[in-house]
Write a structure and sequence with these properties.
alpha+beta; six-stranded antiparallel sheet; 9 helices
Length: 298
């Protein structure tokens, strides 16, 4: 039983949708929380501000929203000395981070799962002075996010991400980069550099170990050539630890920190949000935040 909890929900949703979402979760949450405060966001940045200002005064911070709202909340909570436990109620298109936490994607079941109280301290990535829970990427991944058709996304949801990727993958522009990491330095040309902390991308599982969220290491994929085979390979591999470097079209590095520079400043995608540019100093903050998780450990 949690004594005090704050539930942040997205105010941009319509009244009927908001009512339906809250109606699905309030019952299960009431069974495990003595005092629950609902806080509605009104504009971008509100979720981060609310978490930063009020995170220290609650036992549990609940996030009803998608990966973008989770990203804001992580950036508000990560700098706190004593952040609360965090629970995600998936309300977005992909909900990738909640999937990594083994949270059911149906809201009522998600709320019931959270109220069982199982927790796990998980790693959080930091890029310069910002934080990410799921991934940091440049190149193809950023182009795919930029190219997503908002109308298409609203119509078919998660599939729009993959359609955008397929439209972009054959026309990706290579960039020159230098990457300093725990084992040394690498560089040259690439079409995408992807730094994973979470275990899902666009609802698809990534080939990472089951403890990827709390192993204290970032998983980095460097893709040097565009083409559909690279996407098939990326999602076909069961585990990067079984990856064969000599037969692969990409490189894979595990590191606790990296310094990334590119020949020209490049936009970076963090958890689906694009507002940071290279160069970037990236590191992992081991078991930085504690989340409510599903029955199986993430």
């Amino acid at each position: 039983m949690f004594k005090k909890a704050i539930l942040i929900h997205n105010g941009s949703a319509g009244q009927a949708e908001t009512g339906s979402r809250l109606g699905a979760v309030i019952g299960p949450l009431a069974a495990g929380i003595e005092e629950l405060t609902l806080v509605q966001t009104k504009e971008p940045g509100d979720a981060e501000r609310i978490c930063r200002e009020r995170g220290g005064e609650t036992d549990l911070l609940l996030v009803l929203g998608g990966d973008g709202t989770v990203h804001e909340c992580v950036n508000g909570l990560a700098p706190l000395e004593d952040p609360p436990v965090v629970g995600i109620l998936p309300g977005g298109t992909c909900n990738d981070f909640s999937r990594a936490l083994q949270i059911p994607q149906e809201l009522e079941r998600a709320a019931e799962t959270l109220m069982r109280g199982k927790t796990q301290a998980v790693d959080i990535g930091r890029a310069n002075d910002r934080y990410f829970s799921n991934f940091f990427g440049i190149g193809l991944i950023t182009d795919a996010s930029v190219n997503i058709n908002p109308q298409l996304k609203g119509t078919i949801g998660k599939l729009s991400y993959f359609i955008s990727t397929l439209q972009t993958v054959t026309s990706a522009n290579p960039f020159r980069f230098t990457l300093e990491h725990d084992s040394g330095q690498t560089g040259g040309e690439a079409v995408m550099l992807f730094v994973a902390n979470g275990r899902f991308l666009g609802t698809r599982p990534l080939p990472l170990a089951s403890d990827a969220l709390y192993d204290g290491v970032l998983d980095v994929a460097i893709i040097r050539e565009a083409g559909l085979p690279l996407l098939k390979e990326l999602f076909k591999i069961k585990n990067f630890q079984e990856w064969d470097s000599e037969k692969s079209s990409f490189e894979f590095i595990r590191t606790t920190s990296l310094k990334l520079t590119t020949d020209q400043p490049m936009q970076a995608d963090m958890d689906g949000e694009i507002y940071v540019q290279t160069p970037a100093d990236i590191s992992v903050l081991g078991k930085k935040l504690t989340f409510l998780v599903g029955e199986e450990q993430p």
